[in-house]
Write a sequence for this structure.
């Protein structure tokens, strides 16, 4: 076996491999605060790219960014009964406003609040309250806002990026005059996620609607995108909710229609979070560590001068500087190519492996041999570590955009092939249970099976196999009715079943 | 008197004028959460410009962005005694992790935490804990990180942007091997603020050091920038702290020096917040509302088609679109000119006033007359509302960058002239008290007076006049020693006294 940078490998222990990829790429670490992580520079730089690029798309669909308070009065959260019961078990509650010295000299909470404040687990309640003030007339509709914020949900079992007590996200909120318009809006915004996640993160997704049991608390419909990780489990990568009038009625968000009658609005909300980073890691990385899609990579190219003789140093460094400069002048998807020169030659072999583990798409070496004829030795991260080719610096520069686009496309196609290879149409109860049996190494993945819509069947399968309906692919126009293998009843269409994060 | 858009005027009631500028520009509103505000689209778009432009400067001085937890265990905060006592009176404390139904059916906090968590009032304690893990060897130094985050301090008296319970900020944190290097770092980062606030926000500032009584809790030295508002009060616009070894020792942040001996590091921190928006408002705006410095304005140019006859509409709109497109192709300080066409002609006169109140630097009208000869009628926000000139669209395009730069320069110079006109050298106790007397309309502003360094004098003046030492201009090389008028003792240099926000 070839040496791999990550121990254990995916094959040996996938969950532990994931933690080691995060660690060796220096993306994040567990913090001493229960269930929270510290996002380190490499992880945060990736989040900045995601944030910047998705923010542009959100603005393109007419959302204005705002910022609402972190703290939500308990009475606000309580207004929508289903909503609050969905989050009550995981709320961080602020009860005091200062600290004073107790009898033993230790600080204790003091200044008890009249009303407890909840750290936002999501912002429908507080933003809905603002909407109720901002919306008076039909001329105020539609209203579309977005917020980049931190969220706290007191999770029992946490895993870096995938499920943490505090996480960063974006939440869009809209209000509309009609149900149809609001439902269309939530579908349009789902499509923003499909495009972003597929085109920028190179993660193929299946879009659909959640079954009623998996809906967001308070929603009429929850639409979602689901991606397949390399362990064949699903990751819910984004959701878009048609909230009906539940929040509008609970928070009295209403407008005067053109006849002057007061009507409640119809609202939506939609969000993605730092969880996307977990998805990028699990879809693309290998046993040598992180592998980043070029569109969102904090660096596209790392240039490493290889200096064996001091006499060569000046010339090699000058060529590296010139190459970096020329690459930075090139535009890749509306921004300059991101290039770094890593001249830490004293690190020896660790220098290259560091960038392999961090997943930089293109690694370039310039040593005495390359400097002599203005060439460069190149490794692409998705090919084996030792697979290198030497070409002229001019050619590298001329082809760098095409190379990055090819890598992006390759990563997407590879993930799509994997997803397709592990998606199976299943028509019998027996085959379904066999597919998800613990000892079936060939099995797992996405099962496309009919379902009659009965929540009891869903619950039993969840108990038996830890398998859930990831989504009902309601946007798939080729979907056909059939027979549910669990009830022998009519099923309107196949749904996607999988184990999930 | 000419009509003004804002009631009351600055002259009539400055604090209320401020609130009305915020309101009429739709920048923010008071939220139902005590002491917190909702930052609305126009205010948030301004913050996005500030954040983006300052972030570039922070990266230029080698800070990497990270994200640390919102919640700090009480035991962490307690480690540095001076630090915690400085913040204990204004801490939001999380004591419970869920909500359950009480006997009356109402939700009550449950799941009490073993250790209370404090919502970060600043992050030295939690980032210092990370530094203690990340720093092992002298090769790990210097370490420079930055974080964009929300902060909660339970303030008793709040005012939008200037002092709110929750606010947004940036906090840089660094660690160094020597005291000199750390002190130099904190001075260098102060200079980043001087350049940013003066060049981008057009706010002239005076830089200096805080007196010991005004230092950040736990700091050895606090450097700051102070700006003069139009009511002649000072606003502390940014601070940079040399923290000595107080946090390094409290949190055991240490490295092995090149002899292998364990040494505590020297740390610094530096921050600016959404308070800067309050500064922009109070320095530049007038009785017609907000006035934005072009560098950070969310929009540079608003184009308003003026349509009286439907027959003209197509031609006028086409010219507006073409003009907007050509302007957007122009680069102003490394980004495209930000242009909007406002075609809401049914709003009548309110349409133009809306943009006046929002402070957009350049307002352009294109009506039938202008469309006939490809001209445009222009008003610059800093000139009177009715002061318009008509020029060719070609000239507007050719000169737009110069025009924006001129406006930027004009705003800065006007504010600097105001600051200088209201800064007075004072040498006697009597003159000092007269300068700050409530009924002295010509007085107030910045008083440059000697001070012997006695905190008791500082405290008495604060009690008598609500005047504090804003800073000791330690970077002013022309400073000379003299006699303190309050003690008749030797004073090393004049200090700046003022009332402050």
């Amino acid at each position: 076996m070839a040496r791999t940078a990550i121990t254990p490998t995916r094959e040996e222990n996938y969950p532990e491999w994931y933690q080691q990829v995060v660690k060796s790429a220096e993306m994040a670490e567990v913090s001493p605060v229960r269930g929270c992580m510290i996002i380190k520079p490499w992880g945060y730089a990736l989040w900045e790219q995601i944030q910047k690029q998705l923010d542009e798309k959100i603005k393109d669909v007419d959302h204005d960014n705002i910022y609402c308070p972190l703290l939500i009065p308990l009475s606000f959260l309580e207004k929508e009964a289903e909503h609050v019961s969905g989050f009550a078990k995981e709320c961080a509650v602020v009860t005091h406003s200062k600290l004073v010295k107790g009898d033993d000299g230790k600080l204790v909470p003091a200044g008890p609040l009249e009303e407890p404040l909840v750290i936002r687990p999501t912002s429908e309640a507080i933003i809905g309250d603002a909407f109720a003030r901002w919306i008076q007339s039909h001329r105020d509709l539609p209203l579309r806002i977005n917020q980049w914020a931190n969220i706290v949900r007191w999770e029992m079992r946490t895993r870096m990026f995938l499920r943490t007590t505090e996480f960063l996200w974006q939440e869009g909120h809209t209000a509309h005059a009609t149900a149809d318009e609001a439902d269309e809006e939530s579908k349009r915004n789902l499509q923003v996620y499909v495009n972003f996640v597929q085109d920028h993160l190179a993660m193929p997704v299946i879009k659909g609607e959640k079954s009623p049991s998996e809906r967001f608390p308070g929603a009429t419909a929850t639409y979602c995108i689901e991606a397949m990780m390399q362990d064949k489990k699903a990751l819910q990568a984004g959701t878009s909710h048609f909230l009906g009038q539940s929040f509008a009625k609970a928070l009295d968000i209403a407008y005067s229609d053109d006849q002057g009658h007061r009507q409640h609005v119809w609202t939506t909300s939609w969000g993605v979070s730092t969880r996307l980073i977990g998805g990028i890691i699990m879809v693309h990385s290998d046993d040598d560590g992180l592998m980043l899609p070029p569109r969102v990579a904090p660096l596209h190219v790392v240039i490493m001068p290889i200096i064996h003789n001091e006499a060569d140093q000046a010339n090699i460094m000058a060529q590296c500087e010139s190459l970096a400069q020329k690459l930075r002048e090139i535009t890749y998807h509306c921004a300059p190519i991101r290039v770094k020169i890593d001249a830490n030659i004293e690190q020896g072999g660790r220098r290259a492996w560091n960038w392999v583990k961090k997943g930089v798409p293109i690694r370039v070496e310039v040593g005495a041999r390359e400097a002599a004829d203005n060439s460069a030795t190149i490794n692409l991260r998705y090919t084996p570590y030792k697979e290198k080719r030497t070409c002229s610096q001019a050619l590298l520069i001329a082809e760098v955009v095409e190379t990055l686009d090819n890598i992006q496309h390759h990563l997407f196609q590879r993930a799509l092939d994997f997803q397709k290879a592990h998606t199976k149409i299943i028509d019998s109860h027996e085959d379904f249970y066999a597919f998800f049996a613990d000892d079936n190494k060939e099995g797992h993945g996405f099962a496309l099976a009919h379902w009659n819509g009965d929540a009891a069947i869903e619950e039993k399968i969840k108990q038996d196999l830890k398998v859930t309906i990831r989504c009902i692919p309601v946007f798939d126009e080729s979907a056909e009715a059939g027979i549910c293998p669990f009830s022998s009843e009519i099923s309107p269409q196949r749904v996607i079943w999988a184990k999930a994060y």
In short: The longest strand of chain B covers residues 107-119. Chain B has three domains: 14-284, 299-403, 424-498.
